[in-house]
Amino acid sequence: MNDITITGNLVNAPVLRTYGTQQVTKFRLAHNHSYRDPGTGDWIDKGTTFIEVSCWRSLAVNVTESIGKGSAVIVSGRLKSSEWEKEVDGRIEKRTSFEIEATAIGPDLSRGATQAVDRRHEAVERQEASAVAEALSVIDSGSPFEPVPGEQVPAA
Question: Taking the alpha carbons of 105, 109, 111, 113 in that order, is the dihedral positive or negative?
């Protein structure tokens, strides 16, 4: 199992691209490692980890419409690694990078408040509108109930 959840801030604005028929958004996340010194109460900075994040389909679109550079987020997804070699000062060094293929991204509410907007799929909206129109037409016809065959309808 390689699921991971991480908090951090976006280093850059999310970039939405289309590959074939699939939409993907990528951005870089910075996670700061710090702790409070129990003796002095001061925050001690222990460095920053940078990690690439990719998200696909509707999550990709929603991310580009919802968050931007500097946003504090929580990212959950699958951790993937890539290895390559790089020449440094005449010698070859092995390098490893990590990427999270996100399954969920949200604001880090420990850092501030936000309000979500529920965007429903067009088909769901049409179905709901149709159901409401049908219910209203039944109410406008005088009775919200259909009579059972053979049953006498009480006078209004």
Answer: positive
Query: 42 lies in a domain?
Result: yes
For the CA atoms of 9, 50, 17, 59, the dihedral, rounded to the nearest 10 degrees, stands at -50
Asked if residues 47 and 1 have their Cβ atoms less than 8 Å apart, the reply is no
Question: For the whole model, what pTM was predicted?
Answer: 0.66
For residues 89-94, give the mean pLDDT. 90
Closest among 17, 88, 19, 25 to 53, alpha carbons compared: 25
Please say whether the beta carbons of 63 and 25 come within 8 A.
yes
Whether 104 contacts 56, CB under 8 Å: no
Domain count within the chain: 1
